[in-house]
Design brief:
Blueprint: H1 9-36, H2 42-61, H3 73-90
Helix pairs in contact: 1-2
């Protein structure tokens, strides 16, 4: 009677955070439209900020663990070496 196979609670919470973030952006667009119509409704601004903050909190606390695909592994190995050489030249 546990969770279904492949169910990850953190993944679901991350997606809920994305939902709140997108809805908050949508409500902010409605606020901007009300401002353009010269009938400013600040309650849309307050709701959008609240939803965006909640979305970032959910997404920040429950980050997905993504495995590296290894596609740019050669470039990633070369970039840190170049930065170390540049720091050595500046000194």
């Amino acid at each position: 009677m546990g969770a279904p196979q492949g169910f990850d609670r953190k993944e679901v919470l991350h997606r809920i955070g994305t939902f709140f973030l997108l809805v908050g952006i949508g409500v902010f667009v409605i606020f901007m439209a009300s401002d353009a119509a010269q009938q400013v409704a600040f309650n849309y601004l307050c709701w959008s900020l609240l939803l965006i903050i909640i979305g970032f909190v959910f997404r920040g606390q429950f980050k997905r663990s993504v495995a590296s695909s290894g596609r740019f592994s050669l470039v990633k190995r070369l970039i840190p070496k170049a930065k170390k050489e540049d720091q050595g030249k500046k000194k």
